[in-house]
Inverse folding.
């Protein structure tokens, strides 16, 4: 019987010819990843729970300072230090210090550390991002991460696969983020619970790697275990330019069995926005245009890549923001490229503040946390109660162009409705 | 491994996410007792202050959705609440709870039958939830064999320790 991409990847890493959904296996991992929030508990498991001496492979562990770094307070500084000290003691090859990394899900693909055919255990729920490259990548808790760092393997239940076949060309200002929000709105916050998503079709093939990463990133917001895409020439070229080791892509069998298939035609899809307080609470822009806002946030593992910043800057160029707008490049590399292209200057001239790479206020960490009753439109992935700060703050999720247009208008606005660019006062 | 739990019900709705269980601003500690001080405070401000050892958290669908933060089950463990019964659980939370040997039980009928403050019994050996006030007994959805073994072993750490010993790696 044929296997889906998720099944092929798990079978390969479990040393089996076939696996079926619902089966439990122990699978070898290619990369174990953690960040400054999830690593300390994993390191406690590794050192004290297991009394383990050495990680299974110092070139297969990635540790990234991203969530509360540069550290916001003493407690977070001590957490980052636990990770830094461990990385040093274990000679971890892929340790990303402040000034070298950024958000792990932006950094690991751009550095060629996660590759097609891989199986990745990540101590962060958005580890599913790497599925865009054809890797089985999923988020795990610190106990799993601590154990996988010691053993080099992980227990897995083989998930059923939902196949999402996407066709059509996007309208202007509509893209990957709108598609994934639209699908989450259709299937719900637990619509893919315990299951893998497999995205395919002409629209996915037309997308850049950056756009594909945006879609895979939000599998978890539908409850999914993985958000997979079938590697194509674009994937192979992207990975060959940056790979840290050789890789063997896997592909689904033609006669694979899917739990269900969802068909999406994006031809008429409008810019799509998740309204408070759940990602599945989606509306089209025409339904929510005019909603007043207090803050705009552009960044995160969903939309903090160079392409996202270019898109936002294309709207902001020559315009002024009406409300406070925070831009957080996803990585040091994104920051440097955006700087070289003059994009950071464009943001600054428009009245935005550009922050250091990292997770920032996406999870209410720091650099843009919301107060009571404040309203923020954000390019991030979650708008749960209290996600970006006060429990009575409200968050809308959208793509970077919509965020930039909302920054200029001070309310939710279609970029085409912004009006002409006014001459800057000298 | 404790198999029998009895306590008061704390009831929550659907899609209780990990930011509600323990907000990101409290993730600067990994100590269960510290995390417990703010556990579920947004959903029910009385909960972290008044929860007693052995009390049972009851919730609708998709409990624990969102982040991979193990701080969420750790915070619940820190409150000394005995177990979580829900109509369904988000994947990472469910897995983390089993890895930490926190009892997580799927039993939709029991969720519909109970109210905040009810006395409730959970018997893992019999696979039953019992509501003394009405005499109702509900069968829980069995956990897959592998996860049940992991849970019975005391969670993933004791299980992995044994594997490492067998490999001669500790």
């Amino acid at each position: 019987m044929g296997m889906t991409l998720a099944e092929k990847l798990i079978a390969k890493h479990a040393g089996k010819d076939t696996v079926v959904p619902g089966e439990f296996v122990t699978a070898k991992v290619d990369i174990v990843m953690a960040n400054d929030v999830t690593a300390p508990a994993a390191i406690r498991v590794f050192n004290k729970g297991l009394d383990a001496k050495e990680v299974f492979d110092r070139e297969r562990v990635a540790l990234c300072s991203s969530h509360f770094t540069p550290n916001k307070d003493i407690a977070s500084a001590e957490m980052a230090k636990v990770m830094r000290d461990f990385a040093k003691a274990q000679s971890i090859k892929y340790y990303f210090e402040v000034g070298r990394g950024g958000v792990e899900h932006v950094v690991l693909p751009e550095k060629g550390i996660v590759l097609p055919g891989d199986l990745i255990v990540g101590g962060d729920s958005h580890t599913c991002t790497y599925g865009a490259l054809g890797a089985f990548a999923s988020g795990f808790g610190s106990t799993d991460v601590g154990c996988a760092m010691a053993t080099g393997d992980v227990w897995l239940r083989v998930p059923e696969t939902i196949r999402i076949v996407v066709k059509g060309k996007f309208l202007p200002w509509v893209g990957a983020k709108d598609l994934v929000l639209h699908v989450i709105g259709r299937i719900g916050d637990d619509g893919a619970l315990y299951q893998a998503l497999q995205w395919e079709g002409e629209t996915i093939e037309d997308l850049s790697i950056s756009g594909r990463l945006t879609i895979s990133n939000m599998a978890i917001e539908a409850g999914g275990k993985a958000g997979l895409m079938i590697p194509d020439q674009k994937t192979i070229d992207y990975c060959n330019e940056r790979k840290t080791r050789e890789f063997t892509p896997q592909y689904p069998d033609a006669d694979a069995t899917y739990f269900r298939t969802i068909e999406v035609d994006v031809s008429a899809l409008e810019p799509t926005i998740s309204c408070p307080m759940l990602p599945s609470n989606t509306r089209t822009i025409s339904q929510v245009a005019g909603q007043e806002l207090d803050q705009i946030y552009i960044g995160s593992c969903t939309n903090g890549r160079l392409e996202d910043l270019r898109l936002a800057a294309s709207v902001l160029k020559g315009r002024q923001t009406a409300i406070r707008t925070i831009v957080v490049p996803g990585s040091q590399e994104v920051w440097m490229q955006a700087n070289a292209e003059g994009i950071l200057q464009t943001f600054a001239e428009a009245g935005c503040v550009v922050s250091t790479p990292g997770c920032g206020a996406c999870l209410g960490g720091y650099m843009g946390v919301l107060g009571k009753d404040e309203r923020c439109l954000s390019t991030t992935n979650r708008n749960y109660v209290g996600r970006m700060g006060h429990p009575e703050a409200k968050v809308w999720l959208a793509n970077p162009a919509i965020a930039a247009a909302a920054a200029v208008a001070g309310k939710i606005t279609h970029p085409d409705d912004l009006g002409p660019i006014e001459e800057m006062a000298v | 491994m404790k198999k029998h739990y009895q306590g008061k019900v704390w009831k929550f709705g659907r899609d209780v996410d990990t930011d509600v269980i323990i907000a990101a601003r409290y993730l600067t500690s990994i100590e269960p007792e510290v995390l417990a001080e703010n556990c579920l405070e947004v959903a029910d401000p009385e909960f972290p202050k008044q929860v007693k050892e052995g009390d049972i958290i009851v919730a609708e669908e998709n409990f624990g959705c969102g982040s991979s933060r193990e701080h969420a089950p750790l915070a619940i463990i820190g409150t000394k609440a005995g177990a979580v019964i829900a109509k369904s659980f988000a994947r990472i939370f469910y897995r983390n709870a089993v890895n930490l040997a926190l009892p997580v039980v799927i039993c939709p009928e029991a969720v519909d039958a109970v109210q905040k403050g009810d006395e409730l019994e959970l018997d893992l050996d019999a696979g039953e939830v019992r509501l003394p006030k009405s005499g109702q007994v509900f069968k829980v959805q069995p956990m897959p064999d592998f996860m049940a073994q992991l849970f019975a072993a005391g969670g993933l750490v004791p299980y992995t320790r044994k594997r490492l010993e067998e490999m001669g790696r500790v």
User: Anything to note?
Assistant: DSSP finds 15 helices and 18 strands in chain A. The mean pLDDT of chain A is 97.
